[in-house]
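Table 4 source record.
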Amino acid sequence: MSKFPKDFLWGGATAANQIEGGWDEDGKGLAGSDMVAYVPKEIRGLKSAAIDVSSDRIDEILSGKFEGRFPKRHGIDFYHKYKDDIALFGEMGFKCFRISIHWARIFPNGYDEQPNEAGLKYYDDMFDEMHKHGIEPMVTLSHYETPLGLTQKYNGWLGREVIAHFVRYAKTVFNRYKGKVKYWLTFNEINMVTMHSAYCGAGVVLDRVEASQQESAKYQALHHQFLASSLATKALHEIDPNAKIGCMLARLHHYALTADPADQRQAQWGNQQNLFFTDVHARGEYPKYMLRHWAENNVQIQKEVGDDEILKQHTVDYISFSYYMSLAVTTHPQEDGDIGGNLLHGVKNPYLKASDWGWQIDPVGLRITLNDMYDRYQKPLFIVENGLGAYDQVENGKIHDSYRIDYLKAHIEQMAEAIADGVDLWGYLEWGPIDLVSMSTSEMSKRYGFIYVDIDDDGNGTGERIRKDSFYWYKKVIASNGEDLG
């Protein structure tokens, strides 16, 4: 018997703002991601991210006073090349391909009354192309792509009015793609809002909020997203009962560095803060530990009558998450200090190696994560992002990325162990199956793909697609349903 279910969904995952391009074509409006300029690492530093945008910078960009380069406006030109790229995924044998719909391609300002037909047709054609190759689409409704119009009018998800605009958008695409899309997600890595960037995650420009109220503002925006997610879940169940809708979390498993109870408690709290988001999505209520945290830290959110009932009545069908690394935490001073990667912080785990970007590589942590989450929720799980960002070298027209194969093989082996443990796992989608623009740094040199794209960090290159060694390896993995990892 195979270690993986016969209908296991192997494939890959992307985001519109990192691959599409066509930022001003066919009626598309501006999105928050279109305002993120590239900042070279010699200015921002190797490990820091560059995704927040100030109110002044938005004004400078819109007025033409700022002349930066905006890689997420151009991506890898998937907007025009999607048929060829999907054919490559079909060649690998993909069972599932995750995309996001660029909200501003459907409702250019976010608050428009009527959708943009050209945008709707684009995704119609894309889904048809996927089905032609036997690929099931998975669609994220909001993947760091809040329309700029909603930021300008309401300060993004801080405005409760955005809930209704999101629900209109969700119902529009649910009705349009009924029967074409079986798997939906509401918000990508919804914990981004409080974890790192309220602008990236919720279109909120924090410098428009009093400093003393900024933490409350993040959770207020999050509350509105929780409500919108629940209402979208309700809508899909009514419009297309055969489809499934889930939530999506950046899962960050925390280890205590030592057996000191203080370290153990710090790790437990780190995991609670991370799983708070799926607690709300899957259990339908705010956990008591977060209510205590808010009370002790003067975090206040405004609810309306009926909000709690909406969350309770419309929980997700499945739980999806990204997994790239684990974190080690301690209450004891460390000589090495913080070793945080682009978005995350922790101390060095002496038992793990790290990627080129400082992300600690922990395949066993994926098995732990799968078991912990399934024990906690007893809902189906779906790994919708996992992969290795690395520097790739082209040698005589080839890319020998054995390091990527080693990374993915080790994680797939641990997935098989988790399934044997009894975890209900629906599928595995490798992040960035074709090289794309980095979310956190807007680089191209941080490559995840099985397919190399000839574009560099400065936007130069032919855009040519080249199959890496990992392309042929993953094709073999899928064909064998995870049996042949050699």
